[in-house]
Design a protein that fits this description.
Length: 125
């Protein structure tokens, strides 16, 4: 069973371009291509408040360790690690985009494939 992610057309195009530039591991590329094939594209203003997109604050839990982190997902040009503002094109940003609060997902990080649950999503604008 594949969960259908929800994306704005702009984010959809950004992710397609990210794949074309070969910025992902093979595991993540195949996963993202499948997600995009099944994605539901809607207008940015119609994206539900509990779906991860640009300008959302996300609390995520790594399921194996139980470790939680909070990130603010921003456009690539506004990413600043010291404020936990991370690019939508960062590894965790791409992993979570389009998923809603409560979703569980797997994504290959530098230290291997990790499983995450999106605990809370807050729209910032």
């Amino acid at each position: 069973m594949t969960t259908s992610i929800v994306l704005s057309t702009g984010i959809f195009d950004l992710l397609k371009d990210h794949i074309r530039r070969r910025k992902l591991s093979k595991f993540n590329q195949v996963k993202l291509e499948l997600e995009l094939r099944n994605a539901r594209q809607i207008l940015n203003k119609d994206i539900p408040a509990d779906v991860v997109t640009v300008n959302t604050k996300v609390r995520v839990k790594e399921l194996e360790s139980g470790e939680e982190a909070t990130y603010v997902i921003v456009p690539p040009a506004k990413a600043r690690n010291k404020h936990n503002n991370i690019s939508i094109l960062s590894a965790i940003g791409v992993a979570m985009v389009g998923y809603s609060q409560g979703s569980e997902l797997s994504w290959e990080m530098p230290e291997g494939v990790k499983k995450f649950r999106i605990e809370e999503v807050t729209r910032l604008n």
